From TrEMBL:
PANTHER family: ENDOLYTIC MUREIN TRANSGLYCOSYLASE
GO cellular component, one term: plasma membrane
Protein encoded by which gene: mltG
Family statement: Belongs to the transglycosylase MltG family.
CDD domains: MltG_like
Name used for this protein in its record: Endolytic murein transglycosylase
Domain of life: Bacteria
Keywords: Cell membrane, Cell wall biogenesis/degradation, Lyase, Membrane, Transferase, Transmembrane, Transmembrane helix
The organism of origin for this protein: Sporosarcina newyorkensis 2681
Length: 378
């Protein structure tokens, strides 16, 4: 009888030992699970921290190239963040959006911004809030409407660190021309290489005021900026061009004539109607600026003998538009080319004050000539 209680004690003792071992095992498992979770959490947290920290750094701290970013009216933070990421100005739209929210940034201004990939999130937010570029450019370059490629080269070299010759060498090089054709195949097409074209990129450098943040930008950077601006200004008209089966080259060529002839927005639209009416009638355009471009020189007055120059750009000797632009047209001329006035005018001339006078018939045109031109030379 005494052995039975002893056996029970031994069994209970054995069970206690087993339970202790189980507890130790469970504790070890819990310890390792917690350790693994902590390690994963630390690694994950560090990875997230590293990702966010990297996403808040400038995309390219050394970049000075200006990126044009358009923020439409009514754009919210989500839309603006996506636009900035698409333009390559920020690394992550999501991180930028949350960063702005954490900093209680809102009330951004719609408009067109010249931003760079070297700007920090704070600089970008400041620009979007104030409607101005936060960084101060090293210099600005203003290209007025109506300048030729040669005139742009002269004006640019006066501000930049390269010469006029270096500018012209680049814009007339086959490599540069092919590069832009490859980059913008829907807008810069083989038309710029047509026979009799003087300069392939004539008309493709948009007139505007450009900020540059590098004191010595390269020729390539400057021309890239101007060509990019032309493309951005052509894009809104692509639907019209497709509908009318016209090309960007046609638009830039037509707009360049308006730029050289017009003195006001209303004149551009009316002169556009004159040119369209003349082409519809099979009449040559007979616009003096094309003669001057053909001659390659500036004159205060075009002479009768000048009108006879044999050149593809001379619209007195050739019907239709010249083979390419004769100058670099601005936004108003581009708009007038696609939205001309509806008139029956076939003639116009400018008086000594630059005021244009329009006529439907040749007889009316002769009267205008006698009153506004001939009488001034007596």
């Amino acid at each position: 009888m005494e052995k039975e209680p002893q056996r029970k004690k031994e069994v209970m003792f054995q069970r206690m030992l087993e339970q202790k071992e189980e507890v130790r095992t469970v504790r070890k498992i819990v310890f390792w699970i917690v350790s693994v979770i902590l390690v994963i959490g630390i690694i994950g947290g560090f990875s997230i921290y590293t990702y966010i920290k990297g996403a808040l750094k400038p995309v390219d701290p050394d970049s000075e190239k200006v990126v044009e970013v358009v923020v439409p009216i009514g754009s919210g933070l989500d839309t603006i963040s996506e636009i900035l990421e698409k333009k390559g100005v920020i690394k992550s739209a999501r991180v930028f959006k949350y960063y702005a929210k954490v900093n209680n940034e809102a009330d951004f201004q719609a408009g067109t911004y010249g931003l760079t990939k070297s700007m920090t999130p704070d600089e970008l937010l400041q620009s979007l809030k104030t409607g101005v570029v936060y960084r101060t450019p090293a210099f600005t370059l203003t290209i007025p409407e109506g300048l030729t490629l040669d005139q742009i080269a002269e004006r640019t070299s006066a501000k930049a660190s390269f010469t006029k010759e270096e500018f012209m060498d680049f814009v007339t090089s086959e490599d540069a021309v092919l590069r832009y054709m490859t980059k913008y195949p829907d807008i810069i097409t083989e038309e710029i290489q047509k026979e009799n074209i003087r300069y392939a990129l004539e008309g493709y450098l948009f007139p505007a005021t450009y900020p540059f943040y590098d004191e010595s930008p390269s020729v390539e950077e400057v021309v890239d900026t101007m060509v990019d601006a032309t493309v951005q200004n052509i894009i809104p008209f692509q639907g019209f061009l497709e509908e009318k089966e016209k090309s960007a080259h046609w638009l830039l060529t037509f707009a360049s004539l308006l730029e050289k002839e017009a003195t006001s927005k209303a004149d551009r639209e009316t002169i556009a109607s004159v040119f369209i009416n003349r082409m519809d009638e099979g009449m040559p355009l007979q616009t003096d600026p094309t003669v001057l471009y053909a001659l390659g020189e500036h004159k205060d007055r075009v002479l009768l003998e000048d009108l006879k120059v044999e050149n593809a750009y001379n619209t007195y000797q050739n019907k239709g538009l010249p083979p390419g632009p004769i100058a670099n047209a601005g936004a108003a001329s581009l708009q007038a080319a696609v939205e001309p006035s509806k008139t029956k005018y076939l003639f116009f001339l400018a008086d000594k004050d630059g005021v244009n006078h329009f006529a439907k018939t040749y007889e009316e045109h002769l009267k205008n000539k006698a009153e506004y031109i001939d009488s001034q030379h007596k």
